[in-house]
Amino acid sequence: MLENEKQINDILGYGEKLKVLVGIDKDTGEDILKEYHFTPVALKKIPALMKMLNVFFKSSGKSDWNEETIEKSAKILKMSLEKMHPDIKSDEIINSFSLGSLAKGISIVMDVNDFLSQMQAMNQKMKNIAPMQ
User: Fold this and answer.
1) What are 88-127's pLDDT values in tens digits?
2) pTM of the prediction?
3) What are the φ/ψ torsions at residue 11 (nearest 5 degrees)?
4) Who is most buried in 5, 39, 46, 75, counting CB within 10 A?
């Protein structure tokens, strides 16, 4: 990775990219890959995101997949994608993402919105600046 790319990726809020196989070119036989750029969800959307993640994990734990679960999963990804892909629709996600890319996408959503790890890093910095007495 180039130094500039690393600096860009270290920007808080930059997020993470995921390449998804969306098909094959019928003329050339080459894979068609689409790159999706996930970013943190705006604060005002965090309560809705947490509710949808809860539904996703309950369904995953029970292997209880249905249309509603798929739609909520697509909405989770959409919330994290719409900043960089403003025209993205849930249908595109449902038709392009496989179960594996959905799982990876959910993992990225959780990583880029990871409040707890950011708070732990901040607390560690504070301990280093002003050690507890």
Assistant:
1) 999 999 999 998 999 999 999 988 877 656 666 777 777 7
2) 0.77
3) -65, 125
4) 39
